[in-house]
Amino acid sequence: MAGPVKKLYKRNRSPGDVIFDTANVLLLVLLAVITLYPFLNTLVVSLNDANDSIQGGLYLWPRAFSWDNYHYVFKEATIFHATLISILRTVIGTVVTVFCSAMVAYTISRPEFVLRKFVTIMFVLTMYLNGGLIPNYLLIRDLHMIGSFWVYVVPGIIGVFNMIVIRSFIEGLPEGIIESARMDGAGDFRTFMRIVLPLSLPALATVALFTGVFQWNSWFDVFLYNSQDVNLSTLQYELMKLLANSNSNSSMTSADAFANSANASANFVTPTSIRATMTIVASLPMIIVYPFLQKYFVKGMTLGGVKG
């Protein structure tokens, strides 16, 4: 049946349909190129010899392939321990934030909770009003979390935007499922754990992706609270320091570096090459994780935004 249907479809297409489909394909290809090219060019610069990169003209393939940029980044002994801390804060912070945000979202989604509107407004106000950097620092100091790993987890334990996404999704679930669990004797926590959480997987995956990216990319809190403790430093903070060092050590201009490239050492790097390498190193874990969460992410964003 596929053959006759395909022939009938082709026969019924007008010249306007062909032009429209062709224009759509060209537009999508153009958008794909615009979207992917910056990242691909960054990858090319990171894999190209830094001396050669100064000349410019790099597009889709390394002109002088080299691992020197990555050797320079990973030669620091603290990088690997910082990567472990980044992984731990991303995993622990994401799990704790998603679970706690989901519990709050379930609570304020229940119509029998008489203060649900008031509590929701109080949470939403925190998105627009902030005490500022100094009060936040004083609060963290008074909580004795400076110099502690938990400073990466506790301050963001409830994300208001994440909570709203999950609440909207929970409100879209059939009420009969929750009522049937209540009739079977399940309490609120058991209903939440056994019924609501499994059904809210798309919204939870969406929030987990948001939170995971934030935790992985965050470095400013390390600078504020744990900059003196190397054992609590994260990958992003170490890469930031590495880039700052490469900028301060780069005393020659690009023209001078190119003129002296013949006498430069094999491990010569530039701030541009280090920046490109850092971008790839920092982005790669999220790029690997995203395909596994993509279907839940799309579904969660679609269904979670039905209700406000």
Domains (count)? 1
Q: Please tally the β strands and state the result.
A: 0
Q: How many H/I helical runs?
A: 15
Oligomer: single chain
So what's the CATH class? Answer: Mainly Alpha
Instruction: Tell me the CATH architecture.
Output: Orthogonal Bundle
Put the structure in a nutshell.
By secondary structure, the protein is mainly alpha-helical.
Helix and strand arrangement:
Elements lengths: L1 H10 L3 H32 L3 H4 L14 H7 L3 H32 L6 H13 L4 H10 L17 H12 L3 H9 L4 H12 L1 H17 L2 H6 L9 H15 L4 H6 L11 H34 L4
Explained architecture:
- The structure is a single chain.
- With 308 residues, the chain is mostly helical.
- It has one domain (77-308): MetI-like fold (Orthogonal Bundle), CATH 1.10.3720.
- The protein has 15 helices and no strands.
- Helix 2 crosses helix 15, helix 5 (78-109) packs across helix 13 (235-249) and helix 11 (201-217) runs antiparallel to helix 15.
- The longest helix is centred in the last third of the chain and has 34 residues, at 271-304.
- It is flat.
- The model is unreliable at 251-255, 257-266 and 304-308 (pLDDT under 50).
